Amino acid sequence: MALSLAISPCPNDTFVFHALVHGQVPGAPPVEVTYADVDVTNTAAERGAFDLVKVSYAALPWLLEDYHLLPCGGALGRGCGPLVLTRGDRAGSTDPTGRADLTGATVAVPGDRTTAYLLFRLWSADRPPARIEVVPFHEIMPGVAAGRYDAGLVIHEARFTYPRHGLTALVDLGEWWEADTGLPIPLGAILARRGAVDPEAAAGWIRESVRRAWADPAASREYVLAHAQEMEPDVVDRHIGLYVNEFTADLGQAGFAAVEALLGRATDAGLVPQTSSSRATAWTS
């Protein structure tokens, strides 16, 4: 039987899963793919809609009763965190200590259970903005540029393209997180539905798909570009180079520590429900 898989159309996901999706991983079952933004997959996973699914690490507290966290295939790294963008006329908005200040601002975010928004809430806890609006990702930068929002929280390829919109990075939440914790930034996770997919087998399929992607990057080129929408090839290459890294093949000790730190801080701040440490780290449990 075919497994249902939900990933984003972003280049890092299509690059990683190309071989699995196209039946090139020995021993893996056929896969039926749905492409959707992570805010959509976060919600769908709560309904158990997919056998394998890419979600935000921030959504794990609502999902780990029904899903195994896999130690590979996701997005986690250094120098790849979300950005808070503003127009040039707000770029100097700081408090008396010189720290970026969005008090009184309206901020557009890509989803209320995204890791980007959770990092933003932790960063802005002592001076939150006046209003948050959940906005489709592709509308955030144009909305900030047009003045509909005072600031926007962006991820992925926006790191490379925001200057085209005349915007300025007020804060790099990845830099803030890394400086504060010394850990990489846990962004997107791959989950396997309990009772439907053997997590050890699934991890093996995904790792082989990653290995094949790295061994022959040209093999997935047409597929990646077809789903990259309006991204230019050079942006696609930079996107893959940043988000597909050693943590994609294996989270390792540092990766799991980053997940525990993110969820632990969020729990202590009352932003997410308590998550069992064994559920978050022992992926075969």
What layout of secondary structure does this protein have?
Layout: E1 3-7, H1 11-21, E2 31-35, H2 38-46, E3 52-56, E4 67-69, E5 75-77, E6 83-87, E7 106-109, H3 115-123, E8 131-134, H4 137-145, E9 151-154, H5 158-161, E10 167-172, H6 173-181, E11 185-193, H7 199-215, H8 221-227, H9 233-243, H10 246-249, H11 252-268, H12 277-281
Parallel strand pairs: 1-2, 1-3, 7-8, 7-9
Antiparallel strand pairs: 3-11, 4-11, 5-11, 6-9, 6-10
Helix pairs in contact: 1-7, 1-8
Characterization of this structure:
- With about 280 residues, this protein is of the alpha/beta class.
- It contains twelve helices and eleven strands.
- About 40% of the residues lie in helices and about 20% in strands.
- The strands form two sheets. Strands 1, 2, 3, 4, 5 and 11 form a six-stranded mixed beta sheet that branches. Strands 8-7-9-6-10 form a five-stranded mixed beta sheet, with helices on both faces.
- Helix 1 crosses helix 7 and helix 1 crosses helix 8.
- The chain is globular, with a radius of gyration of 18 Å.
- The model has no long low-confidence stretch (mean pLDDT about 90).
Cα-based radius of gyration, to the nearest Å:
18 Å
Order of helices and strands: EHEHEEEEEHEHEHEHEHHHHHH
Mean residue pLDDT: 91
Shape: globular
Q: Helicity range of the residues?
A: 25-40%
Briefly note the structural class of the backbone: alpha/beta
Tally of helical segments? 12
Low confidence ranges: none
